[in-house]
Amino acid sequence: MELVNFQSENLVVDYISFNITGCKNPKPIATYLFDSFGFNSVMKENFKGKSEDLLFKIKNTYKVSFIKCTHDPESSSYWTGIIVKFSGGNGKYFYSLIQRQLIDWCIFDLSCTNIGRFDLYYFRKSKSTDQEGLSEYFMKNSCEKVNAKSKRKKAVWKGTPKGLIMRIGNRPNSNYYRVYQKTEKIDYPIYSEMNKGLKFELELKKQLVQSFQGFLFHNQLEEFESKLVEHFLKYSKKSFVLDSSYTDWLRISLRKIFSNQKLKPNSNYLVSSYLKKGNLEDFAQKERFFKLIQLLSFLRTLEYSKEFLDNQAYCIVEFTVVGFIDFTGGDTKSTYQRTKALKFLTSLQELTPLIQKFSNEEFRRSVMFPYLKLKKQNRKWTITLAVGEEFYFHRYPFLFPNSFLICKNKYDLEIKLQLIESFSTVELEKKLLVKRFLNQFSVPNKDLTKIKKQLIDSFFILKDSQLIENKFSLVSKNSSSNEVNHRTGKIESLSPGMLSKSEFLFFWEKI
């Protein structure tokens, strides 16, 4: 499974510092950074006084600061050594050098060097849909959430001349969070723009960040970034309310890491992404679309080799038709099902309309299945398939239980697709259009009751799989007075009769 990293989650390194115990002369490090990467350098004593230039060239853009610490109880300094500090854009640039493996760590003498502080931030750009005053509401509720759960970790927020700011924890703590309004320059491949938004900035210090430093110093950056991303997201989950538009980015990222953690070898799941709005026109299109989701889930269980075509990577997988049928709970001995599966697989290179159902643009840009070969071996059809690497490794945010892989009949298929579509929103609150969904079935009341029961059974499965909270809200209208009625309860209390006059059903995703 592909690991999450800073780039995939749009996290930015904003500050890095190193503590070098016993070091008294910063000149060798300053010279190395100056000659190799154009860093000017300054130094000051024990955080006091003015900074003095060590090395300076006017054309240099970046700067490194050295703080010489000596044992001085009067200034509360009990440690002897050098702090090497890269702040703001300097930290971002220095980390880019690390990513390109250009830093010679020997210059820091790793036997006595630790990471002192490492800052990460996410910038959530303001959106036209953000409502006036909701930022204050978000900060107030988040502070109440933190303060209700912990007496030691204090959360406060206030307005300042520069905008709103929220602080969680104390500055010396291992985790210190600040969220504040800011205008940020965002660089795109061919242009830049200034955007207003909220900056979510987490300072990591002491033994917490030092527990990850071995991966950094040994250039194991995939592991280093993956672990820091996971910590950043999980700590953010504890710190903020999730039912806010300002944490839409957090919900998306949490779904990805939790889905990755739930994936187990040799286990069957149905994966699904965010779907673009718009209905599939007929049952044949719905069936093809669901088959595609089943195939994506199946492909993730297979071994692969990698090939390149014009710098585009493709994963080559091989499987039998009956293996795919068995994965989806079908009858491998049925000639009809084998023929139907073969027909679907041979049409994979004609799936353009289905690709458009995904909102992630990389699905639309890439040819998903550029190569397909069928061969009959020992009376079994074997498929060799090339799959776009981005498609194969996409981190699907929604992971449904294996019972969703199997469709017992066309009504079951309609129910599963309706639930998948209801899930495919960023918000925690999901909406099911009950009346519109049930009105599509022209069947006797007896059969309609069975469909309602199947729908409720699917909710039980989602609840037992801990994908949704154990609560719902039904909205109905009184036909005579047009009065709106709300009915809430636990999933266990849902019954077919409740759905008969309902317009909408709301349920809540569990993250």
Report what the structure shows.
The two termini are 20 Å apart. The chain has 17 helices and 20 strands. The protein is an alpha+beta fold and 511 residues long. A hairpin with a 4-residue loop joins strand 9 and strand 10. It has helices at 27-37, 89-99, 134-149, 206-210, 213-217, 221-239, 248-262, 283-299, 321-327, 335-346, 352-355, 361-365, 389-392, 410-423, 434-439, 445-464, 496-499, and strands spanning 12-21, 39-45, 48-55, 62-69, 81-87, 113-125, 155-160, 163-168, 175-187, 192-205, 270-272, 305-309, 312-320, 371-377, 380-388, 398-400, 429-432, 468-477, 484-489, 502-509. It folds into three domains: 12-24 and 80-261, no CATH class; 270-392, no CATH class; 427-509, no CATH class. Helix 6 packs across helix 7, helix 8 packs across helix 14 and helix 14 packs across helix 16.
Uncertain spans: 353-365
DSSP, total strands? 20
Largest sheet: 10 strands, mixed
- Spatial order of strands in the largest sheet: 3-2-4-5-1-6-10-9-8-7
- Provide the structure class: alpha+beta
Q: How helix-rich are the residues, as a percent range?
A: 25-40%
Question: What's the shape?
Answer: globular
The average pLDDT score comes to 88
Estimated share of beta-strand residues = 25-35%
Please tell me the total number of domains. 3
What oligomeric assembly is this protein in?
Answer: single chain
Overall radius of gyration? 28 Å
* Amino- and carboxy-terminal Cα gap: 20 Å
Total count of helical runs of at least 4 residues? 17
